[in-house]
Design goal:
It is a single chain. With 388 residues, the protein is an alpha/beta fold. Helices cover 40% and strands 15% of the residues. The chain is built from 14 helices and 11 strands. The strands form 2 sheets. It has an 8-stranded parallel barrel with strand order 1-2-3-4-7-8-10-11, surrounded by 5 helices. Helix 7 packs parallel to helix 9, helix 10 packs parallel to helix 11 and helix 12 packs parallel to helix 14. The longest helix has 20 residues. The radius of gyration is 20 Å and the shape is globular. The protein starts with 24 loop residues before the first helix and ends with a helix. The relative contact order is 0.13. The chain binds ligand G3I. The site of ligand G3I has 15 residues, from loops.
C-alpha cells in the first residue's frame, strides 16, 4: 500500500504567518514547560488542555460526560506556509497535529552527515504559537528511507545510525512532543509463519531486535514520551487481516515479555468503503491489546473513495458511514486516547497519489472538503469524540 519515497527537504522557510527563526535546543527547552505539563495521550494527558487553549467551538461542544477525545490531523509544512485558509482550519479544529512527512528520515537525514530540522521545527513552532500539540511520526519504518541508508553495512553501524537518529530527533523535541510513532508498520502485508516482520534496512541488520532498540532509544531520549507502535489494515474482514491481527498481537506480547517500553498501539485506520469492518475480529483484538495495558490511538483515519460512486452526496455518506462503523466497533471496546485523520481537508491528501479515481473526480477522504467545509465524516468524528 505504501510507496517508499525519497523526499529531500532543503527549504529553510518557516513562515506560517508569524515571525519565525531557526530554533536551538535551548529555545525549545524554554518553551517546553507548558507542553510538558500536558503529558502524553495517557489518562491524564490531554485533560490538561486549558480552556483558553481550546478552540471556541470545541469548548462549546464539550459533552456532559467530560472532555471530548482530542482530535488532530496530519499537516504539511509547505501548505501551512502558503495557505492561510488551511492554517485557519487547522487552528479552529485541531488539538493535535502530526507532520505528514517532515519528521521522516528523508526530510531529516537527506544525507548521512546531515540533520535538517527546518520543516519539522516550523510545524512545531506553528503548533506552539496556536496552542496545538504535536505528535511525532516516525522513527523506525521500512518505507520512505533515503537512499544512503542502503550503504549501511553491519549490525553495529545499523544500531548506531538508528539510535543516533532517534536520540537526535526525540531529544530535540524532548518535553515538546508528547507522543511518538516510534515503530511504523512492522508487520508484513500478509504475515505467514516464520515471516511476520516486514523486511527493512533495520530487519536486515538487526533482525527483530530493531524494535526494542528503537523503543529504548526513544524512551531514553525523553522518558515522559508516549511510545506508540503504529499499524494499518487490521480492522477488515478476511484472512489477510485476521493474520495481521494475530501477528500484531503476538508481536506486542513478545515486546511486553522482553521488557521493551511501549505505551500504546496506533490504529492507522486508512479505511476503504468497499471493505467490510470485521467487528468481532477487531473487538477481540482490541480487548486483548487493552488487557495488555496498552492504550489505543486512532492515528491516520481517512476513507479511500476511489471506487465509490461519483455523486458527491452519496459518496460523502458512504465515507462517513464507513468511518462510523469502524468507530462504533472500536468504542464498544475502548475509548481511544486521540483521533487523528491523515490530513484535515480534501485539498491536501495522500490518497490520489496512490488511489486516484478512474473518473478523474477529486478524492474526498477527509473531514473537510477542499474549501474547508465540514462533510458528514466531520460530524461522525465529532459525535464519537464528544458523546460516545
Ligand atoms: O518532496 C518530493 C518532491 O520533491 C518530489 O518532486 C515528489 C515527486 O514524487 O515527491 C515528493 O516526495 C513525496 C512526499 O510524499 C511529499 O509529497 C514522496 O515521493 C512520497 O512518497 C511521499 O508520500 C508520503 C508517504 O507517506 C511516504 O512517505 C505521503 O505523502 C504520506 O501521506 C504517507 O503517509 C503514510 C504514513 O507515513 C504511514 N501510514 C500510511 C500513510 C499514507 O500512505
Amino acid at each position: 500500500m505504501l510507496v517508499p519515497g525519497t523526499k529531500h527537504a532543503h527549504s529553510s522557510r518557516s513562515d506560517f504567518g508569524v515571525t519565525k527563526q531557526a530554533h536551538s535546543r535551548r529555545e525549545f527547552l524554554t518553551r517546553a514547560a507548558s507542553a510538558a505539563a500536558l503529558g502524553h495521550f495517557g489518562t491524564t494527558a490531554l485533560s490538561g488542555v486549558s480552556a483558553s487553549a481550546t478552540p471556541k467551538h470545541i469548548a462549546r461542544g464539550r459533552s456532559a460526560t467530560g472532555e471530548p477525545i482530542p482530535y488532530g490531523a496530519a499537516v504539511r509544512a509547505d501548505a501551512l506556509a502558503g495557505d492561510a485558509s488551511y492554517r485557519a482550519a487547522i487552528v479552529s479544529n485541531c488539538q493535535f497535529i502530526v507532520p505528514e512527512g517532515e519528521m521522516k528520515w528523508p526530510d531529516v537525514r537527506p544525507s548521512r552527515a546531515e540533520y535538517r530540522f527546518e520543516k519539522a521545527d516550523a510545524i512545531v513552532d506553528f503548533a506552539r504559537m496556536n496552542n496545538i500539540k504535536v505528535r511525532g511520526h516516525t522513527l523506525a519504518w521500512y518505507g520512505g528511507m533515503p537512499a544512503w541508508t542502503d550503504d549501511i553495512g553491519s549490525r553495529a553501524e545499523a544500531e548506531r545510525e538508528l539510535v543516533t537518529h532517534i536520540e537526535s530527533i526525540v531529544g530535540r523535541y524532548r518535553g515538546i512532543i508528547p507522543s511518538w510513532d516510534v515503530v511504523n508498520e512492522p508487520i508484513e502485508d500478509w504475515p505467514k509463519a516464520g515471516k511476520v516482520l516486514r523486511p527493512s534496512i533495520w530487519t536486515k541488520h538487526l533482525g527483530p531486535d530493531y524494535l526494542r532498540i528503537a523503543l529504548r532509544a526513544a524512551a531514553g531520549s525523553d522518558p515522559s514520551v508516549q511510545l506508540v507502535l503504529n499499524e494499518y489494515d487490521i480492522e477488515f474482514k478476511g484472512p489477510r487481516f485476521a493474520a495481521r491481527r494475530r501477528a500484531l498481537l503476538e508481536l506486542l506480547r513478545q515486546l511486553r515479555d522482553s521488557g521493551a517500553p511501549l505505551h500504546a498501539l496506533g490504529l492507522q485506520a486508512h479505511l476503504f468503503a468497499d471493505r467490510e469492518i470485521d467487528r468481532d475480529g477487531l473487538q477481540s483484538f482490541l480487548s486483548d491489546v487493552k488487557a495488555m495495558g496498552l492504550d489505543i490511538l486512532i492515528t491516520e483515519l481517512d476513507v479511500v473513495d476511489y471506487e465509490l460512486p461519483g455523486d458527491v452526496a452519496e459518496r460523502d455518506a458512504l465515507v462517513a458511514g464507513t468511518a462510523g462503523k469502524f468507530l462504533q466497533a472500536v468504542f464498544e471496546v475502548v475509548r481511544p486516547k486521540a483521533i487523528l485523520t491523515w490530513g484535515l481537508s480534501d485539498r491536501y491528501t495522500w490518497v490520489p497519489t496512490y488511489f486516484k479515481r478512474p473518473d478523474g473526480m477529486p478524492n474526498r477522504p477527509l473531514p473537510l472538503d477542499a474549501e474547508f467545509k465540514p462533510k458528514p465524516l466531520f460530524a461522525v468524528i465529532e459525535e464519537f469524540r464528544r458523546n460516545a
